Amino acid sequence: MRTRALGAVLVKGGLVGGLAGCGGTQSALDPRGPAAATIADFSWILFAGAAVIFIGTMALAAYGVLLPDRTKGVPPIRFILWGGLVFPGVTLLVLTVATAMVGNAVDFRTHPEEPLRVTVVGNMFWWEVVYPDLPGGPLVTANELRIPVGRPVEVTVTTRDVIHSFWVPALHGKMDLIPGRMNRITLIASEPAILRGQCAEFCGEQHAWMALFVVALDPAEFDGWIARQQAVPEPPDPADEQLVRGRTAFLEAGCGTCHVIRGLAEGPYAAVGQLGPDLTHVGSRLSIGAGVLPNGVGPLAAWIAGVQDIKSGARMPSYSTLDGETLTALARYLESLK
Q1: 243-263: pLDDT as tens digits
Q2: What CATH architecture does domain 241-335 belong to?
Q3: Could you tell me the pTM of the whole model?
Q4: Among 20, 36, 17, which residue's Cα sits nearest to residue 28?
Q5: pLDDT in tens, 190-200
Q6: Using N-to-C axis directions, what is the helix angle for 324-335 and 241-252, rounded to 10°?
């Protein structure tokens, strides 16, 4: 009885755990858009077919092992012809046709609505996101793609260094980022959601921590976000001495050599760098380090002081020589950029 009870617990636990793995912000089996829904439906068909083939193969193996006398005298050519040629040939032909149909169904290049165009550039190990055709001019952000619900978003992907792969499982399949080449994939979100994407091509030491958050917003909320992102941050109030100190630390530490903050484009330490993420509105993002830490004053301070301990191999040195007060002021200044 105890053995049966334990077995029941293990089976139920396995089923619950397996079903829980089918959902979440980064699951191909929890679609949040029409392309992902089509791919998920096709995946379930493949799972079912694989299960039938597996059960049939195991049944034949058991039949041959347990009842060997009944298999004697059966010409092997029958198994070779039907099991080795006809069955796999027909199965592969059907799958080839079905895959082509699925590929055509998730291609939205002929969608009647004008798409929002976005360019995503892969870097070791973060994502640059550019909205090039906005009425107010181009908008550059990092590690976060915000899109309006229901509208097609044509994402052009490329890379500045090695091969990466853009993959948001809940919205679409994978698209490789290849040096010198521009590939395109069209996303459509069917509901507001915060989804997680991931680089799906091994690209180096921190490949596992090259995440991308996709935030699907209602169209009006998306327009408001665009307006806020295009605004230039106001300088800190002189009465807030800590923010002023943080801004000064950012400039004097040379952060502007690699990063951009619009509004800090003048002076001997202008923040006009192009090597690292644009930090103009870094305080409004969900994470820092391409998903490695949540946003906030504490994580920002930890990141600045020990980036090579947190994300070894990132193209940013650790600023461990900054004193505690300066580090806190710098982190608070960056967190204020919303």
Answers
A1: 999 999 999 999 999 999 998
A2: Sandwich (2.60)
A3: 0.84
A4: 36
A5: 999 999 999 99
A6: 100
